[in-house]
């Protein structure tokens, strides 16, 4: 507020000052960050699910995939 205090009329300056206290920057930034984080997390989750779905589940290769996943759960 101090940067443009001299350039603005007093009523306008008081309005800006009041709004800066009432609506803090965090009330706008935090929801945007949370939406972005949740979108990225959902995309990562979908990619992980699709990578597991694409694995072969029958035969020797399926058994290797199954035991490899069981082993990775305990690591």
Secondary-structure blueprint:
Layout: H1 10-22, H2 26-53, H3 59-73
Organism: Caenorhabditis tropicalis
Protein name: Neur_chan_memb domain-containing protein
Keywords: Membrane, Transmembrane, Transmembrane helix
Describe the fold and architecture:
The protein has 75 residues and is mostly helical. The protein has one domain. Helix content is 75%, strand content 0%. It contains three helices and no strands. The longest helix has 28 residues, at 26-53. The N and C termini lie far apart (54 Å). The model has no long low-confidence stretch (mean pLDDT 83).
Give keywords:
mainly alpha; single chain; transmembrane; 75% helix; 75 residues
Oligomer state of the chains in this structure: single chain
What does the average pLDDT come to?
83
- pLDDT < 50 stretches: none
Sheet/helix structural class: mainly alpha
Shape: rod-shaped
Number of strands: 0
Percent range of helical residues:
over 70%
Largest sheet: none
- Distance between the terminal alpha carbons, to the nearest Å? 54 Å
- Percentage beta strand: under 5%
How many helical stretches? 3
- Work out the count of structural domains: 1
What string gives the helices and strands in order? HHH
Instruction: Report Rg.
Output: 27 Å
